Amino acid sequence: MALMYTDPFDALFHLQQALDSFRTSDWLETSLSGVGSYPPLNAFRKGDDLVIVAEVPGVRKEDIALEIKDNTLRISGTKTISYGEKAALHRRERSAGRFDRAVALPVEVDTEGVKAECRDGILALYLPRSERDKPRSIRIS
Amino acid sequence: MAGQQALDVREKKELVTKEEKTVPARYYVPATDIYETDQALMVVMELPGVDKKDLDLAAENDALRVEGRINLGKYEGLEPLYTEYNVGHFARRFTLSGKIDQGSINAELENGVLTLTLPKAKEAQPRKIAIG
Fold this sequence. Notes:
Strand content of chain A: 35-45%
Distance between the termini of chain B: 43 Å
Largest sheet of chain B: 5 strands, mixed
CATH topology of the domain at 27-76 and 83-123 in chain B: Immunoglobulin-like
CATH architecture of the domain at 27-82 and 96-133 in chain A: Sandwich
Structural class of chain A: mainly beta
Strand order of the largest sheet of chain A: 1-2-8-7
Helix content of chain A: under 10%
CATH topology of the domain at 27-82 and 96-133 in chain A: Immunoglobulin-like
Strand content of chain B: over 45%
Number of strands of chain A: 8
Number of helices of chain B: 0
Structural class of chain B: mainly beta
CATH architecture of the domain at 27-76 and 83-123 in chain B: Sandwich
Number of helices of chain A: 1
Strand order of the largest sheet of chain B: 1-2-8-6-5
Oligomer: heterodimer
Order of helices and strands of chain A: HEEEEEEEE
Order of helices and strands of chain B: EEEEEEEEEE
């Protein structure tokens, strides 16, 4: 079931419910650095392909390194926060530092066709499933 | 060095308010840093996924209200397989002290981070006192 949003009032609610119900999914359980590593990831299926989305507010595009080998995806980088000189801190909720996360994808992807974009603090990766890995339908003769 | 510290994941905080929303969806509280320089009070908040046009800022009656909406259209046709965080619009409200020059608040949105510069009113800025 792909997500469809026709009713603007219920759309977000349904999306939140759908996302909640996959919080316990074990799809990425065998990963090298799985749950609890930065950045938190959401994985989606779009047709045959995969879409991985992460929230990385305040991280510049140049500060993110993406690597993919076989079916291991690595996302690393640094997030920096600068308060400038002579600043008195009143409230501090954001955090900075380096991150390095590797996840093993349970499907084979076409590494040449991977696309990534980072906009408004959201990193999105489009991972096309390799032709070899796609299921083939078998005709009964 | 602070920059070498490993980043850990912080669970997004859900918005709980006295005013209730008429829609069932959840809102989140953006992580915010507030600091002060000689000239201004700086409010920096994380609003991942919020475009400039979907951001509402209002300063009225000594309150600063920020509301950022995410674009649901981006999730169209996507089928969740595995999720670690939820998404939602962001909202937060701050009470401003009278020492802020409310007419000249400046806002900038970059990489999902909103930086608000709230200039201090003239009388609130530190004055150097010369020893005569």
